[in-house]
Each structure stands twice: as C-alpha cells, then as structure tokens.
Design a protein that fits this description.
The protein has 101 residues and is mainly β. The protein has one domain. The chain has a five-stranded antiparallel β-sheet with strand order 3-2-1-4-5, covered by helices on one side. Strand 1 and strand 2 form a beta hairpin. The longest helix is centred in the middle third of the chain and has 11 residues.
C-alpha cells in the first residue's frame, strides 16, 4: 500500500498523474474552498478523476488560450495535464501544469 493512500489529498496532485502526461475531459468548473485557510478558488472537475483540480493563473491562461474565456463552453473539451515543479514558500514542490496543445 502507498502511504499517501492513508491520507489522500482532497484535490488532484502531481503524483496522481503517475509521472506522465494525461489527456482529460472537462466535466465541470466550480468554486471550492481549498487549503488550510479554506480560500475559495476555481476548480475543474474531469471525467477521468474523482477529485477536482485547483486552478492557478498559469493554468487558467493556458486553458483559456485553447478553449476561450467562457467556462460553460469548456465542458466536454480536452486538455493535457503533466507533472512539473514550481517554487512555493521557498521550496521547489511538485505541481500540475496544462499543456497548451
């Protein structure tokens, strides 16, 4: 058993991609409370995953470049997620990015 399975994250994480690109289908867009401070952030739900993907500005811009700014029109559209790294609180941490195509 993987130790991460004992306390799963409530949202999609880079480890969920298994180190590879994954093409996903957008099932819905919403606002959810995330993190310890319970901030409201935009999330995307995919047909291929149970947990939602928390949006950041970088990924939002990449999705908008592919599918426009009207989120209702994203439903059923595909994007590619890939594992990457970013700087957060002075540390390099895993993250998920969206490929532009």
């Amino acid at each position: 058993m993987n130790a991460n399975d004992l306390c799963p994250s409530p949202h999609l994480e880079a480890a969920d991609l298994g180190g590879k690109d994954i093409r996903v289908t957008i099932a819905g867009v919403a606002f959810d409370e995330v993190g310890e401070e319970r901030k409201t952030k935009g999330t995307i739900h995919f047909k291929e995953f149970i947990r939602a993907f928390v949006l950041n500005r970088t990924n939002l811009k990449r999705i908008m470049a592919q599918h426009g700014s009207e989120t209702d029109e994203w439903i059923g559209k595909k994007i590619t997620l890939y594992p990457s790294e970013t700087d957060f609180a002075g540390k390099t941490v895993p993250c998920i990015r969206v490929r532009e195509k």
